[in-house]
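User: Teach me something about this protein's shape.
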Amino acid sequence: MLKRHPLAAVIFAQLILTFFVSTQSYAIPAFSRQYGTSCSTCHVDFPKLNDFGKAFKDAGFKFPKDDETFIKIPPVMLGSQAQKELWPHTIWPGSIPGLPPIGLRFNQFFQVTSNNRNNFNAQPLAAGGVNSYIPRTDFQPGFFSIFTAGNFGSDIAFWVDDDISVSGANANGGLGDAYLRFVNIGRFLKIPTDALTLKVGQFELELPFTQARGYDISPYDIYTQANIGAVNPAYPQQFVNNGITLAGPGRGVELSGGHHYGGYRYAIAVVDQNTNGTAGSNFPNVPTGTGGNSGGVGFFSDSNFKDLYGRFAYRFNLESDPASRHEIQAAGASGPRDHTYLTLGSYYLYGRSLQRTSGFLPNGTTPAVLSIHEPFYRVGGDFDFNYRSFNIYGLYMYGHDNDVLPFTPAGLQGPTGVIAGKPATFSGGFIQADYLMYPWMMTIMRWDRVSSTSDFLNGIGASASAPPPGNFFSSLGSVRNRFTPGVQFLIHANIKASFEYQIRPQQVVYNPGTTAQLVNPFRTNTATAALEFVY
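Assistant: First, the predicted structure itself:
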């Protein structure tokens, strides 16, 4: 029953309404105004960057060479250059953009869900429960966003974006990235140019492929994967409720170096955890005498411990023409022209989740709050290959959370300590191929895969035809797979129409604790169209 299994209901709703929470993606039309050039100078299909756009970003939102020559609206100087000679007896001169670098974005969606989702709608669950309703068609506003970015001089870049409203509701909006970036601070240490950069604020981690500025309608499934421990009696119990995902921003500092458009690239970040947990959630199947009776449980960010994230990648330039091999190529009249390249990379995230539960001191009689720390990590590798108008890329991720169970000694009322349990793990990733048929039309094919034992046992996703006791909602397969073909059209350089068809596994609902099907198998395949513009 959905009321008895709220987690499965939430995940199910997420599967069918993915496009309603489509990732934020931004081109910066303010830069077009400042430099008097088209968005396509930096973007293949906004917000996907070409090599020139990557170089522009690496340089702190400036042209990588001779920026003063190309800018059409000069910045406003905050002081004179002569003040540099008088420092520290005067303020170091800086600048602000001559035109307020503000941009706006709005998108909207229309979705059609596969017809046999009515198998789920048609029958009530046992004991008078009522299923969630899956509509056939939907119109839905996306989000209305405001964003600004630029350079304050002295190689200090800034970025702020904020969703004013999401799905037509102002309360659903929120701050995205907001940071200052100090570019090329390695010059003070006499190390190579661009070898050291500092970012401070709230920002997306240096992921292999951006989610915050993704150009697909639907997000990468593996980026939105949390790790929730199994609560099924047929499986060793777990006390894992980790809501961290790579799709969420971190708050902290990041040191990085190298370039996105060639050679090496590294990043090291120390950030607060971007987790979301609910105090008072229950783990009802942790038995007394083995794991203890958890009572009220909540997951919280451990503010005394920061997540550590690291990434290293290297891009091999495979361009055959020596003259153009080391040039940064912008788009021409016939569209973007990136180098032929192969990028290989790896990434690693280490953190420690905190769960608090009611318990007792070792004497077994004095009430106390037990704080349980569970280390976790996410690790993976990625590749990115580009040949002229064809780009194929992907990544693999493995997630691992240590399991620490509250332990209640025999004869006592509740837990007084902890014991080690079986870790909660998941794995998966995606592969995507983009082909630029015309400068204004790009076709897409993506395969997402997530395999999670905890998802399986909590009734989310994978199941065989005979599910384990307690399972009630699953798919007829061992993993969650999704195939997503799509196409995107640039009506103008700043107006885009997109279409995706998301093909998901067949699903079924079982009677809790039995192998009896409550409904016939059904699918939630969705065809989604989007229209968006930036200004």
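Now, about its shape. The longest strand covers residues 367-387. The chain has eight helices and 28 strands. If you'd like, I can walk through any region in more detail.
User: That's plenty for now, thanks!
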